[in-house]
Specification:
Helices cover about 40% and strands about 15% of the residues. It has 13 helices and twelve strands. The strands form two sheets. A six-stranded parallel beta sheet has the order 3-2-1-4-5-6, with helices on both faces. The chain has a six-stranded parallel beta sheet with strand order 9-8-7-10-11-12, with helices on both faces.
Amino acid sequence: MIVKVSSLGDVIQAQAVVGDLHRAFPGLKVDWATDENFADIPRWNAGVARVLCAPLRRFKKARNLDDLKAIWASIADLRRERYDAVFDLHGVYKSAIISFLARSKRRFGYANVNLGERGAAFAYTHRFAPRHDANAWRGMRQTLADTLGYAIDAAPPSVFAIPKPAAPLPVTKDVPFALLFHATSKAEKKWPIDKWIAVAQSLVARGMTPLLPWGSDAERRDAEAIAQDVAGARVLPKLSIEEMAQHIALAALVVGTDTGLVHLASELRRPTVMIFSATSRPHFGVDVPGLCVSIGDEGAPPSVEQTLAAIDSVVERS
């Protein structure tokens, strides 16, 4: 069992370890434990046999009795299997508790100095140390490979199979569209609206329709502000993670900040430009040569010109 509870981008990027494990150990069965909010992600991975999830985030916020009952039910589900090994790739209290409750004599977790919360150490019988000579995602894969003694591919194939939509998506089939993920979970990650407007206008001039997703009312207002100054741009309705993934799978281009859905675009091998302003590009960026590129860095957001050059580098070669 792999334990990676959150967040969206982390759960997406960690899916590559499943393919690594299957290539190294044919016939292996892999289960995944995560928060209910992100359970769709491992469900899209054909290499995951069973997804274990509970409303952990929602219970933490609301302390709802129904959510508590769901958590207790998930513990019973968790303990139905006896695992040869459990690997906690998260390293905090909630992931440690899941690992400890699983029926296994071998529970792997990070060394104390690398844990997100030191108290998580109680759960583990074996330890591993993360690799610091690679970005977060390859380092995670390499850590597991070092522990179990196998080699990994530099650029593994995508593991995702996104469900087909029940009805055709309301997008123009004859005109390529670009998804602009302008919204972020943290204000410091945002890229200025005037720069989004300039990029969207350039995409329209190139024959693309900019589509603007959003998740909150504030994000919807930002999307509307961008669309107001870009003839042809469209504000999407509020979409689920699955619906967003279905749009991403059809996109001619994805441009966005360091957020989970932009990581998904990279994992789906769509032409992707990821913009960094407040987090480390070398540590968290996407990089698939000729297809997915990261620009900017912590404290050094990219210019519009740099962003358009990056778009040219992935669209022309895709």
